[in-house]
Predict the 3D structure of the following.
Amino acid sequence: MTTADEFRALHERPEPFLLPNPWDAGTARLLAGLGFDALATTSLGVANVVGRTRATRAEVLANLREIAEATPLPVNADLENGFADDPAEAAKTIDAAADAGAAGVSIEDQSSDPDAPIYDFGLAVDRVRAAVETARARSVVLTARTENQLWGANDFADTIKRLQAFGEAGADVLYAPGLKTLDEMRAVVSSVDKPVNVVMGFADPSITLEQLAEIGVRRISIGAALSRLALKSFMDGAREMRAGRFGFVGDLPPISELQRAFG
């Protein structure tokens, strides 16, 4: 069984699975050691590593390869919009991700154009169709994302319409990052016939895994939240050090714990 087969099977289980997002080989190994079943890259996490607001296609693919080689777990690749507007060009990034070891890939309808951040409906669907063709040829799981909720579209009906169209175009998994409430998540799940990914990095933090299971969510990711949490801890410690205090040293994990995880 390939890692893509393993990844696909996770979506068919009766209970949802957790999909955390490491940003390098070390964090991938730490998460694998905690017993997670699969991992996902985060393009924002890569951007945080290189100190920019957005990573390049080459950086995202290199990070994917690093994480895929770090553990035997299936890895889903966050490919943003495929780094191209044209459907065929965006699909080439999926091909490159498969070469880098991805078991799954995601493609989104965010254009990176601040004046028109979401692709027109027809182009968005055409892009998913092209992505499906490549994903099937490479036997990887395709997640299709609509970014409406993150970019202020405030048209929930259009979000549902896009997810339904992406499912009809052949996407294996559907995803609308930015859903905040359990009611919004329930509305999405009940409106489509494909597995739904929910990202908790933007959601009501009081929502539990049990509640997500009850409404039929199949996959739960966290986006760049773990990267942001790590950077917050880094900055808190650095500010304390700048102020001439070192209390944060008392919260450090033993070096031996990390060595066991990385050994």
